[in-house]
């Protein structure tokens, strides 16, 4: 006596076969929604991490420069750039 294709063992073997994997529309939609949600949460986490990391880095650099007395040097550098920019804008011919 041979086993038919509808026996429980045959059905289990078919279900375990990777070629017989079928996903219904509801499962597929949930999969897309879950992927969207996970990527959204991951993106928000990445953005918050970058923001906090940048703020900590800038505050640490500012702290180091304040101990070294280098902030006036940086301020003078930016003031020079601004003065050159304003001079170039004022000397530009009017349209």
TrEMBL record:
Q: Known InterPro entries for this protein?
A: DUF5665 (IPR043723)
- Could you tell me which Pfam families the record lists for this protein? DUF5665 (PF18910)
Q: Which domain of life is it from?
A: Bacteria
Q: What organism does the record attribute this protein to?
A: Candidatus Chazhemtobacterium aquaticus
Q: What is this protein called?
A: Transmembrane protein
* Entry keyword set: Membrane, Transmembrane, Transmembrane helix
The portions of this protein that span the membrane are: 36-61, 67-89
């Amino acid at each position: 006596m041979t086993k038919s294709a509808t026996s429980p063992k045959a059905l289990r073997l078919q279900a375990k076969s990777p070629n017989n994997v079928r996903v219904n529309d509801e499962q597929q939609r949930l999969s897309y929604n879950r992927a969207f949600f996970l990527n959204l949460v991951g993106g928000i986490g990445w953005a918050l991490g970058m923001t906090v990391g940048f703020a900590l880095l800038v505050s640490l650099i500012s702290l180091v420069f304040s101990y070294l007395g280098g902030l006036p040097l940086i301020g003078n550098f930016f003031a020079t750039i601004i003065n050159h920019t304003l001079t170039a804008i004022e000397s530009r011919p009017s349209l």
